[in-house]
Amino acid sequence: QVQLVESGGGLVQAGASLNLSCAASGRTFSSTTMGWFRQAPGKEREFVAIIDRRGSNPYYADSVKGRFTISRDNAKNTVYLQMNSLKPEDTAVYYCAASILSMTRADYWGQGTQVAVSS
């Protein structure tokens, strides 16, 4: 069992940066793929980024490539999403996920943190 708690969301202007954190509980964190997803109002949840258990081979959605960076610290049971050059279209609730099964499915989800980007 893995429990996930996100933090770091907020309201920023376009071009600003935010760093999201996801603290995980459970002994299996270091052996689990981790990722971030987001859901904008009126839209389906979409994949943002994923990182393997060793913190290698990050993979990003085309919409965030070059602007967002996913990383993890297995000693702290935490995964991060550094978001730079934020755009209004990045506005969404961001969810941390563990044990990624596909681009839309995961075994465990956090409760989400709101990110709002004003123009």
Task: Draw up the topology in text.
Elements lengths: L2 E5 L2 E4 L4 E8 L8 E6 L6 E6 L7 E2 L7 E6 L4 E6 L8 E9 L5 E4 L3 E6 L1
Parallel strand pairs: 2-11
Antiparallel strand pairs: 1-3, 3-8, 4-5, 4-9, 5-6, 7-8, 9-10, 9-11
Summarize the structure.
The chain is mainly β and 119 residues long. Helices cover 0% and strands 52% of the residues. The protein is globular and about 40 Å long.
Task: Write structural notes for this entry.
By secondary structure, the chain is mainly β. Helix content is 0%, strand content 52%. It has strands spanning 3-7, 10-13, 18-25, 34-39, 46-51, 59-60, 68-73, 78-83, 92-100, 106-109, 113-118. The chain is globular.
Q: Unreliable segments (pLDDT under 50, ≥5 consecutive)?
A: none
Which class best fits the helix and strand makeup?
A: mainly beta
Helix percentage: under 10%
Record field, number of beta strands: 11
Report the mean per-residue pLDDT as an integer: 95
Q: What order do the SSEs take from the amino end to the carboxyl end, as H and E?
A: EEEEEEEEEEE
Overall body shape: globular
Distance between the termini: 40 Å
Task: Characterize the main sheet.
Answer: 7 strands, mixed
Measured by DSSP, the beta-strand proportion falls in over 45%
Rg measurement, Å? 13 Å
Q: Total number of helical segments?
A: 0
